[in-house]
Design a protein that fits this description.
Blueprint lengths: L7 E12 L5 H4 L7 H8 L2 E12 L3 E6 L5 H8 L7 E6 L2 E2 L5 H11 E4 L11 H11 L4 H14 L15 H14 L4 E5 L7 H18 L2 E6 L2 H7 L2 E6 L2 E6 L1 H6 L4 H7 L10 H4 L6 E3 L4 H10 L4 E5 L5 E6 H9 L18 E2 L4 H7 L7 E4 L5 E5 L1 H9 L8
Parallel strand pairs: 3-8, 3-9, 6-7, 7-8, 11-12, 14-15
Antiparallel strand pairs: 1-2, 1-4, 4-5, 9-10, 12-13, 15-16
Helix pairs in contact: 5-6, 5-7, 6-7, 13-14
The structure holds adenosine-5'-triphosphate and magnesium ion.
Length: 406
């Protein structure tokens, strides 16, 4: 099949899963437009997924979220064909897995997927090392190779030194790391994670999330991750698909979902989300009104500042790198003195704190009071991108500030 543009790796088209006896009846009888409840009443069949269309890109952290029974597990399982869908197609790396025969499917699964389950799924009579190596053993990989790989992935997930212990000797968080190590040992392209952290207590859960974020920045796998927890979704996801009654009701970035919920159902999900935990400095910054070039003379700088009716300029060098702030008052002082300055002296530039685009608004709260001027936003090379005023900060959080404490 032809390559897909934009690195799209998974294409789900018109995907249905109807549970029950003779599920195709639903379509033959033309019941597909009826509600889940009506279909159930008329046929006894349960709609697990209804006409799902999604595209997932390579390397994307993709979240499936929704209430219990909305079809998240059905979808994630259909991807690996642990559940056979009733209608539609799932194209992964150009191949439609709904059409594969058993042999093709087995090979495809082994090479493409790793799966992490909610309840870890470890084998209690095997050591941590053997659990991590289990998938490779099933594939017939030699002992030497699979143990070497298992040790490597156990180290990756922070379990070096625990190889010879048994799962019962480990805490929940550690057991789930073994689950993750086992999935990673195959070096899968796609990781499927169905509520992997929901059995953990909140502190450990947050720590596991942080570790997964760090791991993903190195691994760059495609991850499909099911969760009930909004803050987990917002923290981890590049894209979030929200499901209800087997349907996908909205797909978007965390910021899309929080700022533009598609309907009341999504609104209800996000109402507890504090924008301060989602919105970034980059999304609320505005253009710097006066940029002062370090090679300009004080008179030029002051003229430009006055023309914009501003009291400060953001000073940059030849490479647009941010050096600091200069005030109109300081320029006036320079001009009134004896000494004639050709360019702005370094000693007149005030050094101030900067932030990068990805800093969350909640982190600006501690910086804003210390900064006498709007906060400069810079990139990793210290290039000036924009600035944030206190008004920006308070406007951005006043829309729907919730009471969440997560
Ligand atoms: N084996 C099955 N037989 C019949 N109906 C099923 C089966 N598995 C799931 N369902 C139904 O399909 C729908 C979707 O279930 P699914 O398990 O995918 O939801 P979920 O979003 O993963 O829920 P949860 O958050 O509780 O895990 C539900 O109505 C459920 O009752
Ligand atoms: Mg589920």
């Amino acid at each position: 099949m032809a390559d897909k543009p934009n690195d799209v790796q998974i294409i789900i088209k018109n995907l249905w899963k109807v549970y029950g006896k003779d599920p195709k009846r639903v379509f033959q009888k033309g019941l597909q437009d009826k509600t889940k409840e009506e279909i159930q009443n008329e046929t006894g069949c349960v709609v697990g997924m209804r006409d799902i269309n999604l595209e997932i890109r390579k390397g994307e952290f993709y979240i499936l979220m929704g209430l219990s029974g909305s079809g998240k597990s059905t979808l994630i399982r259909a991807l690996i064909r642990l559940i056979k869908s009733t209608k539609g197609s799932i194209t992964i790396n150009g191949d439609d897995i709904t059409r594969m025969n058993a042999d093709q499917l087995m090979k495809f699964r082994r090479k493409t997927f790793g799966m992490v389950f909610q309840h870890y799924g470890l084998l209690p009579h095997l050591t941590v090392l053997d659990n991590a190596a289990y998938g490779l053993k099933v594939r017939g990989v030699s002992k030497e190779v699979r143990y070497a790989k298992a040790r490597e992935v156990l180290e990756t997930v922070g379990l070096k030194g625990w190889e010879d212990y048994y799962p019962t000797n480990l805490s929940g968080g550690m057991q789930q790391r073994v689950g993750l190590a086992r999935a990673l040992a195959n070096d899968p392209e796609i990781l499927l994670m169905d509520e992997p952290f929901s059995g953990l207590d909140p502190l450990i859960r947050r720590q596991m999330q942080d570790e997964l974020v760090e791991l993903q920045s190195k691994l760059q796998k495609t991850i499909i991750f099911v969760t009930h927890d909004l803050h987990e979704a917002l923290k981890l996801g590049d894209q979030i698909a929200i499901m209800r009654n087997g349907e996908v009701v909205q797909v978007g970035t965390p910021e899309d979902i929080v700022t533009q919920p598609a309907d009341d159902y999504v609104q209800e999900f996000v109402q507890d989300a504090s924008p301060a935990k989602v919105l970034t400095a980059g999304s609320i910054m505005s253009e710097v009104p006066v940029i002062t070039y370090v090679w300009e003379g004080p008179k030029t700088a002051l003229t430009l500042m006055r023309r914009e009716k501003k009291k400060i300029g953001y000073v940059v060098d030849q490479k647009q790198r941010f050096l600091g702030v200069i005030t109109a008052k300081e320029l006036e002082r320079l001009l009134s003195g004896e000494e004639r300055f050709k360019t702005i002296p370094t000693s007149s530039i005030e050094v101030v704190d900067t932030v990068t685009e990805d800093v969350l608004i909640e982190d600006l709260f501690s910086i804003a009071p210390k900064n006498p001027y709007p906060i400069p936003v810079v990139d990793e090379k210290n290039k000036l991108l924009g600035r944030i005023t206190n008004d920006h900060i308070f406007e951005s959080i006043s829309n729907n500030e919730g009471g969440s404490d997560v």
